[in-house]
Amino acid sequence: MGVVMSVFALIDDKHVPLYRVMWIAATPHYCGAEDCTREGFYEVRLEQGESVWANRDERDQAILALEAWQGGLPPEEEDWRN
Ligand SMILES: [Zn+2]
């Protein structure tokens, strides 16, 4: 049995479906606003203009999950060549 991959990443207390992720910021947010609550967080852009905000751990986990989900790991299917 292999590792069971989830199609969800946990970001900001939300289970975000990986297939909804458009991109993940490479650098933490900084806009200079004094009352900004997102500073130091990484923006995870979703379809339809939504965003969620990940801390560093969540961002790293989301990237790993995306890589695995998008084919970094071979699918666990029967070998069709036999
Ligand atoms: Zn900001």
Describe the fold and architecture.
By secondary structure, this protein is α+β, with helices and mostly antiparallel strands. The protein has a domain at 21-72. 21% of the residues lie in helices and 26% in strands. The strands form 2 sheets. The protein has a 3-stranded antiparallel β-sheet. Strand 1 and strand 2 (14-17) form a beta hairpin. The longest helix is centred in the last third of the chain and has 17 residues, at 56-72. The radius of gyration is 16 Å and the shape is elongated. 17% of the residues are buried. The mean pLDDT is 87. The chain binds zinc ion (ZN). Zinc ion binds at residues 29, 31, 33, 36, 38-39.
Using the CA coordinates, give the radius of gyration: 16 Å
Quaternary form:
single chain
Largest sheet, if any? 3 strands, antiparallel
Low-confidence stretches: none
* Helix and strand pattern: EEEEEH
Q: Pairing-aware structural class of the strands and helices?
A: alpha+beta
Strand order of the largest sheet: 3-4-5
**Which compounds are bound in this model?**
zinc ion
Number of helices: 1
Shape descriptor: elongated
Average pLDDT works out at: 87
> How far apart are the termini?
20 Å
How many beta-strand elements?
5
| Helical amount | 10-25%
